[in-house]
Design brief:
With 225 residues, the chain is α/β, with parallel strands linked by helices. The chain has a single domain, classed as Ribonuclease Z/Hydroxyacylglutathione hydrolase-like (Metallo-beta-lactamase, Chain A), CATH 3.60.15.10. Helices cover 33% and strands 22% of the residues. Strands 1-2-3-4-5 form a five-stranded mixed sheet. The protein is globular and about 55 Å long. The two termini are 35 Å apart. The structure holds zinc ion. Zinc ion binds next to loops.
């Protein structure tokens, strides 16, 4: 579902695996009900700590929430308090007050350092830490489905978002994604794409990096740049 952000599920005979969830409470409830029509939500994978990917944890109520250890550690830098979280959701969805009744921030139950493998209903999922848009993005490779969920390391139709980015490692993460035997890439924002997206993405990243180098060479300070 292409909302804010793009959110995904994989349906297996053993239940559902979700990758992130929508920022707006109304969207989160719609998404939760859609998931329920497909089976019990066993796992919800948070691909990064930014608010748009994690605020829905409470609405989706997966059996277990999974993230990388650094994403877990960075949770509080994104959702600094319950009040701030509620304010931000009201900002995105001004009419959502009623849907915030009893709202809590739900943290990951299971964390991993560099990789983990999840097996459910005959499907295999490789969770791979992939620095890029943040210093510990998680990309999810659904092996049998031949799909990779790229988180915000790929954002077709948008500029790469350099929020809390690991700039040079991002290129390595793109190479890893590109090397996977998949038919589709489902991004953190935007529509699914194929391998053709990678050259475009790298080119835009280099353009932005070069622009910043130029500004620095002109003597602008970090914050000004
Ligand atoms: Zn983000």
């Amino acid at each position: 579902m292409n909302r804010y952000p793009t959110v995904e599920i994989v349906v297996t005979s053993g239940g559902v695996v979700a990758i992130d969830g929508p920022m707006k409470p109304g969207d989160a409830i719609e998404w939760r009900d859609f998931i329920a029509s497909k089976g019990p939500l066993r796992y919800n994978i948070n691909t990064e700590h930014h608010q748009d990917h994690i605020t829905s944890n409470w609405y989706l109520k997966a059996d277990k929430i999974i993230s990388s250890e650094v994403t877990y550690a960075d949770f509080l830098t994104s959702l600094t308090s319950l009040e701030v979280t509620r304010e931000r959701m009201l900002n995105y969805d001004p009419g959502c007050g009623d849907l915030l009744e009893g709202y809590e921030v739900w943290w990951p139950d299971i964390t991993f350092k560099s990789r983990m493998t999840l097996r459910l209903g005959g499907e295999t999922f490789h969770l791979i830490h992939s620095p890029g848009h943040t210093r510990r993005q998680t990309v999810v490779h659904a092996v049998e489905a031949r799909v990779a969920f790229t988180a915000d390391n790929i954002t077709p139709g948008n500029y790469p978002f350099f929020h809390s980015a690991a700039v040079w490692e991002w290129f390595e993460s793109l190479a890893l994604l590109e090397s996977l035997g998949v038919d589709w890439y489902v991004p953190g924002h935007g529509d699914p794409c194929g391998k053709g997206e990678f050259p475009r993405h790298r080119e835009i990243m280099f353009d932005i990096i070069n622009e910043i180098k130029e500004l620095k060479n002109r003597g602008l300070g970090r914050e000004e740049v």
